[in-house]
Amino acid sequence: MIEKLNKIREKAKIEITESNDEQSVLKVKSTYLGKESEISEVMKQLKDLSIDEKKIIGKLSNEIKNEISDLIKEKLDVIEAKSSKKVSFDHTLPVDKDTGSLHPVTVVAEEVVSILKKMGFIIVTGPEMENEYYNFEGLNVAKNHPARDMQDTYWLENGKLLRTHTSPCQVRAMEKYGAPLRIVAPGRCFRNEDLDASHENTFFQLEGMVIDKEVSINNLIYVMKNILKDIYNKDVEVRLRPGFFPFVEPGFELDIKCLICDGKGCPTCKGSGWVELCPCGMVHPKVLEYSGIDPNVYSGFAFGIGLTRMAMFKYNIADIRVLNSGNINSLKQTGIE
Ligand code: PHE
Predict the structure, then answer these.
(1) Which of 165, 171, 174, 287 to mutate to test the pocket of ligand 1 (most atoms within 8 A of CB)?
(2) How would DSSP label each residue in 218-261?
(3) In whole angstroms, how far apart are CA 228 and each of 97, 245, 270?
(4) Angle CA(248)–CA(219)–CA(272) in degrees, nearest 5?
């Protein structure tokens, strides 16, 4: 009898697997679980068996019935899911190994932001479609100022523009929060560039700004060195060169000693031993004033880190176009997990 029951179990399993529509599954159900089924026949004969045999055969019959009934239920579920075209998502299926990863620019941005957050900076954002005032006038770049030429701007038909830098976030934050202030603003910027290996019309910057009483250039250097130390895991030598931006005075270009050749001179630093990393400077008194902050009481510094460049440096990406290409194979070569 045990052998018979096991055979029934195997036969039922095969028939359930082979049934692919509701009707045939229901037929299997009545064959194996109905009143006239072979299992029912076995159950009817139980009364003629000894108590011990009854226990064994009865238990086995019930087990097999339950097993068949579960398999039928499962099969009906599968058929229903398919036929009703429900999107069925099985969370238990093993995932493809390729689970994706953060974009190199996002990784670098998160690193810098987390360092600044520890120093008390708050994260702010601004729109990519910006008003002319926030992108230029509020930053002391008047309508016909030649400095506008440095940032070949995409103007929109609605009179707005695609922001050419993240500096408008300075103005918005000063207006919103006043002084004292510590902000960091990562974001996408746009300029009309001829594309080549080091120029893109869409790139990422990270703006930083501190306003408080008695803020000096020393504070600026300290913050920058802290960021660099955390990112490159060692003390990085920096130097300031004069640089012109209408919204800072004095304005600087901050260079770091080339990390590839340690300042000896190589193709990356074009033989100079130094690499330009970020423009910065002390906030121009007019910029403070425009946003309602008294320059006689407060001073500040601001910097704009080129995140795209930083990511290229960190991951050894020679062509800037890779970053916006969405080409997974190229991006994978950065080794980001
Ligand atoms: N916004 C400037 C640019 O994109 C960089 C900058 C930021 C300069 C902050 C000084 C201070 O060119």
Answers:
(1) 165
(2) HHHHHHHHHHHHHHHSS---EEEEE---TTEEEEEEEEEE-TTT
(3) 33, 23, 21
(4) 70
CB 138 within 8 A of CB 165: no
208 touches ligand 1 (CB under 6 Å): no
Residues in the chain: 337
163 or 322: which leads in pLDDT: 163
Please report the beta strands in the chain, taking only residues with DSSP state E, as ranges in sequence order: 122-123, 129-130, 161-162, 181-190, 202-212, 238-242, 248-257, 274-283, 299-306
Query: CA-CA distance, 197 to 239, in Å (whole number)?
Result: 26
Backbone angles phi, psi at 212, to 5 degrees: -165, -175
**Cα of 121 to ligand 1 centre, how many Å?**
18
Return the ligand 1 atom nearest residue 279 CA: 8
Report whether pLDDT(95) > 60. Answer: yes
Task: Name the residue with the closest Cα to ligand 1, atom 5.
Answer: 304
The answer for residues whose C-beta is within 8 angstroms of residue 266's C-beta and 6 or more apart is 258, 260
Phi/psi for 300 (5° steps) reads -165, 175
Q: What is the pLDDT of residues 72-92, one digit of tens each?
A: 999 988 888 777 655 667 778
pLDDT grade for 136, boundaries at 50, 70 and 90? very high
Query: In terms of pLDDT, which residue wins out, 45 or 305?
Result: 305
